[in-house]
Amino acid sequence: MLATLRRLVLAESPSLEKTAADRCCTLLAAEWRKRGARVERLTQKHRGDHLRITWWPGKSRPAGQLLVLGHYDTVYSTGTLRKMPFRISSGKAYGPGTFDMKGGLVQALFAFHALKLSVAPLRKRVLFLWTSDEEIGSESARKFIEGEARRSDAVFVLEPSLGPKGLLKTARKGVGEAEIIVQGRASHAGLAPEQGVNAVHELARQISRIEKWNDLRRGVTVNADIIEGGTRTNVIAERARAVLDLRALRSSDIRLIERRLHALKPILKGARLEVHGGFSRAPLERKSGAGLFARAKSLASQMGLTLGECTAGGGSDGNLTAALGVPTLDGLGAVGDGAHSAHEHLIVNAMPARAALLAALLSCS
Ligand SMILES: [Zn+2]
Questions:
Q1: For residue 297, how far is its CA from the centre of ligand 1 (angstroms)?
Q2: pLDDT averaged over the chain?
């Protein structure tokens, strides 16, 4: 497993660099093909290609389809390996994308291989979908993810688990992004201040209004993470903009925030507001994967493992499939820590058990 992980990590695959990503895609395809799966490459113009891998060993028609979802792109640009090499130290494998989520892909590969060698019959066809642009919002993969999810009875997502105990993610917040653009009126700050409408001041007031929508107990967060405005000190700012990060656990809160955002009115006389955007990923509500989690927990306990669950603040492709009403269980990937950071790593010893858990889920679903 480590040798495969190492090969995948050494093939750096940033979402925005197609040539590099495609090299990783080729490598992944070869690993699956070598073990007898049917691999189809979904060629993309601007992003790395996606892989659609099917496996159905039976002679008769399968009773349905199970979708295993993962992405091979990472948030690290090419060359990151020089500062963050693949290395193993104190039982942890470090490197860009080890935890999020090449480790999960390796576990899936070995789960598939184990199932292939075992005598346990499958009831359903297994479809593995490995995509290349999850870290930038899955724009190119979305139609494949949704199309396959609609044909599936359950979706298993190989995103990293949470914490040292490897909690599965049975709920995820819905995520979005909005932009507020303020148009004011420029004027000389010394000679004619009364003729100006300060866009920066207007934006500051709007942001303090929006800040009050935060409700951590309900899982609602609204954060202005980028602001821009003005040109120089003696000119009253004519334009300002803010980009907001939006997150909520409940669909009702999502609708409420979107309504409030688009109903914002200017506070300063003469200012104009434009609001764009909103939520792009619906929440993964707990009820979506509760049944699958119960099954995973019981299978884990038969293997002598205890399995916990948690709610994640970030979205994943699991949000897309849950939004279609397909039972979705997320966080089945690696156990580790430090996704998207310099100390990203996975716990080596946890890999076989997680692979076994996935194999058990696939054969019992
Ligand atoms: Zn991920």
A1: 22
A2: 96
